[in-house]
Each structure stands twice: as structure tokens, then as C-alpha cells.
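Exercise: predict the fold of this chain.
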Amino acid sequence: MGNRNLLVAACPRSGTSYICHLLFALGRDIGHESWLGNHGIASWLLAFDEKPQRGPDVKAKEFKLVIHQVREPLGVISSLHTAGQESWEFIKQCVPECEMYEWQYRRRQPPLPEDSITVMLAAAECWYHWNLQCEEISQWTYRVENIQSVFEEFCQTTGVPHNLDVFQNKYKRDSRSHRQDYRRVQWRDLEIANFDVYRRVCLLARKYGYETPEIDP
């Protein structure tokens, strides 16, 4: 059961690749999505009990420690425009609220104009419900953008050495932001498209400590 020590759970496009590399540099063999390392895994695929589309067929409850990594919503929503059809099918299996959104998927191409708002709203619902689920199964939640200021607690929680020499404060820019199908979403876009979704995402983001537009609870 050594490889069930740690699960870093997160919404898709929340930096699990980054945290996997950081943990590896700190001496932990942590897999990423498709494989289970000797000490655990960082993966968005294991937040729910649905059988994952790829990678190990394990459940979050099998891990000794589950931590929840959250990324600010607009970055996730923007990046999720580049998610593949297979990923969206799995997301919809896990989050029924996303099932109502249908669009014509075009590989590595921007959504059709009539589908653009649909993709954005599906991505917003994904961010909201996936992070709520990660909260339910985890013992600790932290913001990936805030990793430097919580690094000591991160090390204590995960049991890795507090080694500042190997810690690199360089939160990666989204590697997909140059792609044609990437769409940079702003708060106003979400507010105009669906105020209820916008409000829920704002309030949850504020709970995690992100700055959002002023909105009544």
C-alpha cells in the first residue's frame, strides 16, 4: 500500500503536473494521471468514484492522505476550452450539471461562435463542482498560486523535506495558452452568460481566498 500514501486531487487544469514535478524534486515518487508512483499520484481523475478514463483504477478513499489543490477559476475555465472530447465525456459522467451543455467538438480548433458560451459555462460548472468534491475527500486545501507562502505547511502535511534549495518559485504559465482553441475568459463574460453560475463560482473562489468582483452572498 506504499503507493497509496498521497493523492493530490484537483479540478482538471489545476496544475497537477507542476505539483507532481515539485514533489519528485523533494524526493517523492508521485505519478501523474496515467500512472501511480511509489508514493502516490497527482490527478484530477480520482476525485470521484467513477472509473477513470485512463490511469490506475483506484479510489480516493484508498489513500492515506488526500490534499486538494485549487487553481483560480478563470485560468481553469480558459484552459478547459482546450480539453479533449474524451475528457469532457468523463467530466460529464462525474458532474451531471455539465450534461446539459452540448457543442460540436473540433480538435485543436476554437469552438464555433454559437458554442463558445456553452463551453465556458460547462467549464465553470466543472470548476465549481469538482472543487466541492475535492473538498469532501481531502484533509487540506491550498491554492497552487500560493505554494510559496504555504510551502512549510505543504511539506509538513505531505511529509517531504522542507528543502528551499530545490523549491523553485516559478508557477508555470498555462502551457496551452498559445493554442488556437484556448479562450481567455474574464469575469464579465461569465456574468453576462449566466449570473447564477457566475455568482456560485465567485463565492467559492472567494472562500478559497481569491479576489473576485463584489457580489452579495
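Check your answer against the key: The chain has a mean pLDDT of 91.
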